[in-house]
Amino acid sequence: MEEKQSGSPASLIDSTVVPGDVVLDLSSMTNQTIKLGGGLRQDCDAISVMKAGTLRFSKPNKYWVESSQKRYTPCVEDAVLGIVVDSKADNFLIDIKGPVLAFLPVLAFEGGTRRNIPKFEVGTLLYLRVVKANFGMNPELSCTDASGKAAEFGPLKDGYMFETSTGLSRKLLSSPTCPVLEALGKKLSFEIAAGLNGRVWVNAATPDTIVVVANAIMNSESLSGAQQIIMVEHLLKNIQ
Amino acid sequence: MEGRLANAWRLTANDKSFIRTALLSEIRIDGRKPYEYRKIVVKFGREDGSSEVQLGQTHVMGIVTAQLVQPYRDRPKEGVLSIFTEVSPMADPSFEPGRPGELAVELGRIIDRGLRESKAVDTESLCVLAGKFVWAIRIDLHILDNGGNLVDAANIAALAALLTFRRPECSLGGEDGQEVIVHPPEIREPLPLTVHHLPIAITFGIFSNDSILVIDPTHNEEAVMGGRMTTTVNANGDICAIQKAGGEGIPQRVIMQCLQLATAKAAGITKQIKEAVEVYNTERALRKIKRHPTSIGVNVKEKQDQSVDK
Fold first, then answer.
1. Which pLDDT score, from 0 to 100, does residue B155 have?
2. What is the rounded average pLDDT for all residues in chain B?
3. How much of chain B is in helix, strand and coil states, percent to nearest 5?
4. Which end of chain A is more exposed for a tag (fewer CB within 10 A), N or C?
5. Mean pLDDT within B51-61
6. What is the distance between the alpha carbons of residues A239 and B21, in angstroms, rounded to a whole number?
7. Chain B contact for A205 (CB, 8 A cutoff)
């Protein structure tokens, strides 16, 4: 969704919006390209909101609505964690917690050709990128970044995957680093992959580290930054 | 077909192997020990006979209602106790709306058996007029969220609702003494049910490798475990029912171990339910007392005067 239009940035940024709100008027914007993220749609010259949440803006030109929910609505360029459900001749069917299953073309891998189609068993966990998310179509995924490199995408081995709300997984990815991860990282070493669809994967050397990290993250949902740090310290004290 | 595939909840291969390997070193994904129960929260509604139970993430609501009906022919002096389960896709997308699934039926049956076979609820005291009118007690169990171990949570909800339920008092009257008069709650205080003991269901999950036993399995563990056994025991150590449906077999030694563990847990859970009911009853009694704001003011003043006199 790209728009060649004009105008000044909206004043509703970082405030709560509800479905039907018009946040941008394209007729008053000249020579400007904007990118629309999840929760926004274009009706002629008006950009209106489709779900309740907070309107966010990131420089230079990206707008989206942030909310926290259990079900994920696919959106282009989101990094997600998917589970392989089935494999067909051309596509893998992937569950990304969306309303419908997503397609992962068998060639959407770095250097993918007909000869070297990867084999994934049902239940394999993959770190993926959403490429297409149109209405009435199954979303399309890819295992490469925009330039065709594998980057960090691909299957995740071992570890433990748990489900959170979409809001929490977005917080984990935010910068500066989320306090709970900061506090955990000081004492423990672990690997983490957070998908914007509310799935988080954790891997560490021992199972008890994984359990501690996973539970700390799940508990942090409704806590403030300072509370998160206290909670993590308390948890770590119990372990040692 | 595809719609159903998208709605089904699924576990990754990673999680399956992690749950198994972690259990080998006696670690469970929520940080519990194998024989540790999740935290139970029992809440009550404003109406008598409604309860809400939270067992970790699992959330069940129980509602008890009563109705005057004609008794069964072969048992003219006994009241009727029936259990209905409501499992909606809201709790778990894999539940289908409409016709009750296998799980919903089994859930109702286990609780029904525990309550009925052990004669926990005194059905004879529910008789109003032999052969004509008895009270039919109906327990509705609504599953609000499925975080695993629905049986235990639903069982606690049913017990808590039964303990707080009160049926209207009724007496016989009319010209021939055969007419039933139901007294409204404002005129005569409604009567609680006679519950002799509390049959507590305790569920065990059995993992095939090295016959590992866990108590109160979560949603994820339920998807991995090889078998399940529900034992219904009361705080006195009486065994009310055992349910072991399919799956992994269990040796006799393990069953005895389960029963010992269950009896110990049942005592704690019974205590917790009774305490919660006690709190509810006190609150209920306090609500009944009518206070006049003026009279309180006068009392305080009098007391002050007295203290000054002293």
1. 95
2. 86
3. 35, 30, 35
4. C
5. 93
6. 19
7. no
Confidence (pLDDT) at B310: 46
CATH number for the domain that contains residue A219? 3.30.1370.10
B9 sits in the region (left: phi over 0; alpha: psi -120 to 50; else beta) called: beta
Domain boundary among A127, A155, A183: A155
B283 vs chain A: nearest CA distance in angstroms? 30
Closest CA to B118 of B241, B205, B35: B241
| Chain B environment of A157 (Cβ under 8 Å) | 14
| Cβ pairs bridging A and B (under 8 Å) | 64
Q: Is the pLDDT of residue B210 over 80?
A: no
Residue A73 included in any domain: no
Q: What is the three-state SS of chain A?
A: CEEEEECCCCCCCCCEECCCCEEEEHHHECEEEEEECCCEEEECCEEEECCCEEEEEECCCEEEEECCCCCCCCCCCCEEEEEEEEECCCEEEEECCCCCCEEEECCCCCCCCCCCCCCCCCCCEEEEEEEECCCCCCCEEECCCCCCCCCCCEECCCCEEEECCHHHHHHHHCCCCCHHHHHHHHHCCCEEEEECCCEEEEECCCHHHHHHHHHHHHHHHHCCHHHHHHHHHHHHHHHC
Closest CA in chain A for residue B220: A162
Sort out which chain B residues have CB atoms less than 8 A from A98's CB and list them: 6
With beta carbons less than 8 A apart as the criterion, state whether A210 and A204 touch: yes
Residue with token string 């926290």: A68
Task: Please say whether the beta carbons of A19 and A51 come within 8 A.
Answer: yes
Q: How far apart are CA B170 and CA B79, in angstroms?
A: 14
The total domain count for chain A is 3
Task: State yes or no: pLDDT of B40 exceeds 90.
Answer: yes
For chain B, positions 1-60, list CB contacts with chain A under 8 A. 2-3, 5-6, 10-18, 21-22, 25, 27-31
- Decide the pairing of beta strands A79-87 and A125-132: antiparallel
For residue A144, what are the domain limits?
A: 79-155
ipTM of the complex: 0.81
Q: Please report the pLDDT score of residue B269 as a whole number.
A: 94
Closest chain B residue to A81, measured at CA: B12
Query: What residues have CB less than 8 Å from A36, skipping those under 6 apart?
Result: A1, A3, A42, A47, A62, A63, A64
> What residues in chain A have per-residue pLDDT under 70?
1-10, 240
Pick the CATH number of B2-309 from 3.30.230.70, 3.30.160.250, 3.30.750.24, 3.30.1240.10: 3.30.230.70
Q: Cα separations (Å) of A7 from A3, A10, A29, A32, B157?
A: 12, 9, 2, 7, 58
A69 touches chain B (CB under 8 A): no
The rounded distance, in Å, linking the Cα atoms of A75 and A134 is 9
Q: A48-52, B280-284, B290-294: which range is least confident on average?
A: B290-294
